[in-house]
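Reading group handout, session on sequence-to-structure problems. Before we discuss, look at one worked example. The prompt was deliberately terse, the way you'd type it at a terminal:

> structure VOC family protein

The input record follows.
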Amino acid sequence: MASRLNPYLTFNGDARQAMEFYKEVFGGTLDLNSYGEFGQADAPNADKIMHGMLETAGGFTLMGADNPPGMESEQGGSYSVSLSGDDDAELRGYWEKLSEGGSVSVPLEKQMWGDVFGMCTDRFGVPWMVNISTET
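And the output record:
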């Protein structure tokens, strides 16, 4: 297996909902494993996600989990997940789904460098950047 670099998102109790949302956005195969499945069946967090992985037909891999008890997480602190390419319809479709119920900080529109670009934070607090390359 070749080495890969994948975003791994941490959530404060809503990883299942977030990962299912991303499956709706991107399609693909979603595998979710709870803390209860890994020996913590009686723990208060047994139904929370210890590890989740979404793999799409387009080659995206997105991982995520709920924060373990006792650890705090700040959503959207120092990262953004970036989507880029030249398939206008595909990327606009992702944008529409990701920004729905969230907030838009930069509208998806043509920018000074010539591409269409936007920034939003989805309803789970994850910041996204979408860049649609245009021909010059």
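Points for discussion. First: The helical segments are 15-26, 88-99. Second: The beta strands are 8-11, 29-34, 49-55, 61-66, 81-85, 103-110, 116-121, 127-132.
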